[in-house]
């Protein structure tokens, strides 16, 4: 269960965000370096994240668990946030991912079948 959020609006420290999302501080810095999340800097130089970053990081983590790369997530987030119907935009991304996964499964099945037909056959490189 995620840790409770602080009561200060629009001002999560990196530790607060890490505790609320289960993503390490290094992971959050990595997401920030990739442009997936943004922080402003406090007067002391520390990062300060808006409360919305919690949902954004959870979105990123879920997308990763579904097989999306960080590049795909970054592109997809841009597309999703620009659409008036974000549910439809996410559904479209998921459909595209299903097509990609099905193509990979078909390719792997063909490779498996090719290997299976060679099991037990003599090595084609062996000399007789």
From TrEMBL:
Q: Which PROSITE patterns does the protein's record reference? A: HTH_MERR_1 (PS00552), HTH_MERR_2 (PS50937)
SUPFAM superfamilies per the UniProt record, alphabetical: Putative DNA-binding domain
- Record-annotated HTH merR-type domain positions: 11-79
> What SMART domains does the record tag this protein with?
HTH_MERR (SM00422)
Q: Which UniProt keywords apply?
A: DNA-binding, Repressor, Transcription, Transcription regulation
What the entry lists under InterPro entries is as follows: DNA-bd_dom_put_sf, MerR-type_HTH_dom, MerR_fam
Name of the featured protein: HTH-type transcriptional regulator CueR
* Gene3D superfamilies cross-referenced by the UniProt entry: 1.10.1660.10
């Amino acid at each position: 269960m995620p840790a409770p959020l602080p009561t200060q609006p629009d001002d999560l420290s990196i530790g607060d965000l890490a505790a609320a999302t289960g993503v390490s501080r290094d992971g959050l810095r990595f997401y920030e370096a990739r442009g997936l999340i943004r922080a402003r800097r406090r007067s002391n130089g520390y990062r300060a994240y808006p409360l919305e970053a919690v949902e954004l990081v959870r979105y990123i983590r879920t997308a990763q668990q579904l097989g999306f790369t960080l590049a795909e997530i970054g592109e997809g987030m841009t597309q999703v946030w620009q659409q008036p119907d974000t549910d439809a935009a996410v559904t479209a991304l998921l459909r595209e991912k299903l097509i990609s996964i099905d193509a990979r499964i078909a390719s792997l099945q063909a490779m498996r079948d090719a290997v299976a037909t060679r099991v037990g056959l003599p090595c084609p490189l062996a000399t007789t």
